[in-house]
Please model this.
Amino acid sequence: MQLYGGTERPLLSCTQVRYEEGATSALLEEPALTAPRLDLVRPTIRCMHGYVPGEQPQDKRYIKLNSNENPYPPSPRVIAALQHAINEDLRLYPDPVADRLRDKAAEVYGLSREQILVGNGSDDLLTILMRTFIGRGDRVAYPVPTYSLYDTLVAMQEGEAIRIPFPADFSLPPQLAATEAKLVFLCHPNAPSGTLPPLSSVDILAQRVRGILVIDEAYIDFADETALPLLHKYPHVILLRSFSKSFSLAGMRTGLAFGHPALIQELLKVKDSYNVNRLSIIAAIAALEDYAWMRRNADKIRATRSRLTQALRELGYVVYDSQANFVLARRAGVSQEPIYRGLKERGILVRYFSSPDLFDCVRITVGTDEQIDQLLASLKQLLASSG
Model:
């Protein structure tokens, strides 16, 4: 019992509901819940499949070539900046719009602060875009196979996914511009193929799309050209960038969206209040300040990618010309699940997709030269034993 104004009244339990009107009150007894109320979950969520990221095993050390992480460390300036920032200021909230990072990014990429939004990784920015533009029944178009998170985010918003198959050469499907979608996503370079259509093709797509064209450039620092010039030509184009791949900051979760200031202003309304933490902001600024470090690492990865591609082709794989930090290797009609499992048993992780359009492929992150040598040696053994 507890005293309320000198009068003893029973405390409410978790299975009681209290209603008060003026000076009167009533307690309604309800049976205790013995099972989770899954019937209260939105039907869309109950029916959908969540995104499945690459394995992050904790049981032992692997050569990780499955999640497109950078095999080289971030800039020493990043480490130093983080060490300096670990102090009592961690009790304070971060800048809600990360203006220092926006200003540094504007300087590096030739934009203004008002053209930039900072996110908790580019996945956060994709979610913000979906929440801003897509409601029930709205169309979202993208060529497939591509980044499967797009499917998940469309389902969450109860939108309609318009999935346009890539041609065999992964060139841009001409039907993409004619979908009348509110959002059109282009993963550029594409995941999981690593392919990059000519900028002239993307320019034509931007001319024809009537909705918002989102060009997802998470892997662009490993490529020959970027679609950034289109941002200055088309006010309905939004570009996404990530610090996870080329800047070696996957653990910090930081991304950037570039777009027209009026669009960025609308996206700012939708983002979480403090969506990027203090340390991530500091790390990203330091990474941009040592842009040359990133470029050196990206160039090393590009060189190893060429060697890996050639070696896989000599082993009988079809390997698409990649402009990312991974390659997609295919043996037409032959499931690569045994190869994936065999490599895992040997302590090497690659990415296997069981979908009908990718079951005969493995996606391999470009690691260090030493890691790739171990991969190729193990792969040769597996192929020899399988006949």
About this structure: The chain has two domains: 63-69+293-386, 76-290. The CA atoms of residues 247 and 264 lie 24 Å apart.
